[in-house]
Amino acid sequence: MFDITSFAATVDVVPHLSHVASLVHIGAAGFDPGVTPSMDGPLANPSQKVVSWIVTVVLISFVAVIAIGALVWGIGSLSKTPAAKTAGLVGILIGVGGAVVAGAGSTIVYMATSWNLLEPVTSSVGL
C-alpha cells in the first residue's frame, strides 16, 4: 500500500532549485553601468537594413531546403529507397528548425537580454 508520509519524506530530501540558487551570490544584481543604447547613430539605419536582408535571405534559403527535402523524400518514397526517404525527412526537419530559429532570432535575443530569470529566486532569498 502507498504511504504518503514516506513519499513526502523522500521529496524533501531532494534539493529544490530555490535552495540551490540561494547559495549562489550574484554580485552584479542591481548594478547600473549608466549606459543607454542609442539608435540614432550614423550606421543604425543601414545596419538594420542589412540585418533584415540577411534574415530574409536565410528564411528563403530554409524554405528552399524544405522544398528540396520534400522532393527528395517523395522521390525516395516512389523509388522505395529508405536512405533517400530518410535524407529527405532530415532535410525537411533541418529546414523547419532553421526557419523557426531564424524567424524567432530577434525574439530570442530580446528574451535573453531583457528577462531577469533569477529575479523570483533572488527576491525570495533577499539578494
What do these coordinates show?
With 127 residues, this protein is mostly helical. It has a domain at 46-127. Helices cover 71% and strands 0% of the residues. It has 6 helices and no strands. The protein has helices at residues 4-13, 17-22, 44-78, 82-103, 105-114, 119-125. Helix 3 (44-78) runs antiparallel to helix 4 (82-103) and helix 4 crosses helix 5. The chain is elongated. Mean pLDDT is 74; it is low at 1-15 and 19-27. It holds the Pfam family DUF6112. The chain crosses the membrane at residues 50-75, 87-112.
Keywords, please?
single chain, mainly alpha, 6 helices, disordered N terminus, transmembrane helix, membrane, transmembrane
The total count of helices amounts to 6
Give me the Rg, rounded: 25 Å
* Low-confidence regions: 1-15, 19-27
Mean pLDDT, rounded to whole units?
A: 74
* Beta strands, count: 0
Shape: elongated
Report on the biggest sheet.
none
Hey, roughly how much beta strand do the residues contain? Answer: under 5%
Distance between the termini: 44 Å
Based on secondary structure, the structural category is mainly alpha
What is the ordering of alpha helices and beta strands? Answer: HHHHHH
Percent of residues in helical segments?
over 70%
Keywords: Membrane, Transmembrane, Transmembrane helix
InterPro entries: DUF6112
Protein name: Integral membrane protein
Transmembrane segments: 50-75, 87-112
How do the helices and strands line up, and which of them pair or pack?
Blueprint: H1 4-13, H2 17-22, H3 44-78, H4 82-103, H5 105-114, H6 119-125
Helix pairs in contact: 3-4, 4-5
